Amino acid sequence: MDKIQKLAIGSIVIGAIVFALKYAAYYLTGSIALYSDALESIINVVTAVAAYMAVRVSAQPADANHPYGHHKVEYFSAVLEGVLIIVAALMILEESYRGFMAPKLLDAPAEGLALNALAGFINAFWSWMLIREGRRLRSPALAADGRHLLTDVVTSFGVLAGLLLVPITGWAQLDPALAAVVALNILWSGWGLMKESISGLMDEAVPDKVLTQIREVISNNAAGAIEAHDLRTRHAGKVTFIDFHLVVPGGMSVTDAHDICDRLERALKKDVDGALVTIHVEPDNKAKHAGIVVL
């Protein structure tokens, strides 16, 4: 079991603990805002299970039916998480509406808020861990889970700050109002998560900064060739697909052209994590004089 899968299992355990703490906080206080926080934690557990299944499948090697690997399955997990986040937000909005119609002051607020604060600190640590490791290991599912938890952390502490004012002001409507704010923030988070995941499913090119780096690596390591053109990139999970046409002198031997390609692949894999390179070699009469100039 690799580190990505271990982190995904850790998310399931942490999610279950945090949900138990938040539900206990809601049970003690009867707060709709804390109910909304607990409801989002249920979604955290469900999506953590989905993320674990996704990273487990994505780790499988390429096969006859999936010659490019199973990397994109992580994007499906992230889209599912976005959908569930939006569903949770709509449920919270429904509860906040009921709270506005029949407001009530909180019971045992100190104990409930303390439990919710503890859950928030646990989530804060774990979200930081998932985002850091998700980026380092290039796992969209882990990074998405971490960003979702970070949103949960922000809203949790916002709710806590607001609920501290309820017993002071006596304004019971503040509780459902905070729940509605939480729901809107969750909706925004879910939309952003789905948008990012869909870009991966649609074979979106790498960012401009990475593209510039790829062009520089090709230019600096293609000595003996004439030019490179028709560069295309896309990303899927941990893998960055790079393909381009390499123009070489017409009289160059196959062995020499192959050596240049090997040198380029090594350089690209060294500078671009998870690079999978495909190079189409062409003779000099195919030069377009509009691609990457070989230095």
From TrEMBL:
Pfam families from the UniProt entry: Cation_efflux, ZT_dimer
Cation efflux protein transmembrane domain location: 11-202
Q: Name one GO cellular component term.
A: plasma membrane
A biological process (GO) of this protein is: intracellular zinc ion homeostasis
Keywords (alphabetical) are: Cell membrane, Membrane, Transmembrane, Transmembrane helix, Transport
Task: Name the residues that span the membrane.
Answer: 7-26, 32-55, 75-93, 113-131, 152-171, 177-194
Superkingdom classification of source: Bacteria
Recorded topology in the membrane = Multi-pass membrane protein
Matching InterPro entries: Cation_efflux, Cation_efflux_CTD, Cation_efflux_CTD_sf, Cation_efflux_TM, Cation_efflux_TMD_sf, CDF_Transporter
Annotated ranges, domain Cation efflux protein cytoplasmic: 207-283
PANTHER family, A to Z: MITOCHONDRIAL METAL TRANSPORTER 1-RELATED
Q: Which family does it belong to?
A: Belongs to the cation diffusion facilitator (CDF) transporter (TC 2.A.4) family.
According to UniProt, the name of this protein is: Protein p34
Q: What is the originating organism of this protein?
A: Microvirga subterranea
